[in-house]
Amino acid sequence: MKEYGFNTTLLHGSEDKNPFGATQVPIYQSSAFRHETAEELEKIFANKTMGYSYTRINNPTIESFERRMTKLEGGIGSVACSSGMAALHNALMNILRSGDHIVAAAGLYGGTVELLEELKAYGIRTTYVRENSPEAFEEAILTETRAVFAETIGNPKLDVTDIRGVAEVAHKNGIPFLIDNTVATPYLVNPLKLGADVVIHSSSKYINGSSDAISGILVCGGRFKWDKEKYPGMAPFLKYGPFAYLAKLRNGLFRSTGSCLAPQNAFLNNLGLETLGLRMRCHCSNAMELAEFLNGLGHGITVSYPGLKEHPYHRIAAEQFHGGFGAIITLRTGSKERAFKILNELKIPWMVSNIGDTKTLVIHPSSTIAAHLTEEEKNLSGVYDDMIRISVGIENIEDLKNDFKRVIEGEE
């Protein structure tokens, strides 16, 4: 198929054949699928022919979403899941076993840190690097390390991973590099093209865009060479070549744990994807302008945003990303009380524990999404008691600037 630009691909890059000339892929709201012969169904269960049997395993609407995300990220295949956390759990546990070790960036979303802590019960440990740099990842790798994991842009630490550098470190040690691209999205960067092996999204965020569907997805690059001694669970699937990782996941953990996406949510994600480029352009533009405005406002407010030249990760962000620096800003206000006062007095932003909505969302991370972390884990994740996280929406920027100015200047 001809290669198109980003927005054209979102609208016309799908290979879906919609019945009756429908302009959208239908919602195949069916838990199971009928077949004319026993022989046909036998072949489907034996993986000898393509087809549908049960939505816990696959479904035409869900596959449409998977194909679109595979194309956008430049992978060979995707697995859509019921949530971003389900996608991350599947991505990691597809290759890990008791005794294995993960090296992860420190600035991770609080829920991700909680998941990694839960894995301790299964004999899987995680070491968090204090500085998000290839050198720090290399120092933390142990003999038993079996996965390297990071976020493209840490949430809410806003550290930016050197994708190519960390991928080279991981591959030099024979380890796959998995990365969460939720905050950056394919609009800003394709991690697989920079060396990552598996990309994960909480597609409830920017992919969907309207906070109306919980979902997650993982996209496989298919280039990692699996060592059956280090990854014995992969041995039976190596015959599938670049599809080994996906074959193992679909024939095992994904199917057995029932973490499938609902067809209705896949349909909503397909609708959201059509405007991803337009939304991200506005998100990033608004975030840049708002960050610069708040940075010059004074009044004891400290602004963090990768687009600001003084941000410690500005250089690598400028090198890796095209089209902007993301839509997340954090503010240090000086105290929890002041942070709450600002949050309570803002009129336009909604206080919502999500990101990636068309509307601007604000939250106090320390008491919400990071509430169950220890103080040490909060510090590693860049979460402080006086911090506000802003997920910048697509409102008129002057309205947002005036709202923040009114609150910050008016409190004195």
Can you describe this structure?
The structure is a single chain. This protein is an alpha/beta fold. It is built from 16 helices and 12 strands. The strands form 2 sheets. The chain has a 7-stranded mixed β-sheet with strand order 1-7-6-5-4-2-3, sandwiched between helices. Strands 8-9-12-11-10 form a 5-stranded mixed β-sheet. It is globular, with a radius of gyration of 22 Å.
Radius of gyration: 22 Å
Q: What letter string, H or E per element, gives the SSE order?
A: HHHEHEHEHEHEHEEHHHHEHEHEEHEH
The averaged pLDDT comes out at 95
Number of strands: 12
Structural class: alpha/beta
Overall morphology: globular
Quote the beta fraction.
Answer: 5-15%
Task: Describe the strand arrangement of the main beta sheet, using strand numbers.
Answer: 1-7-6-5-4-2-3
Proportion of residues in helical segments: 25-40%
Give the biggest beta sheet. 7 strands, mixed
Distance between the termini: 60 Å
**Number of contiguous helices:** 16
Unreliable residue stretches: none
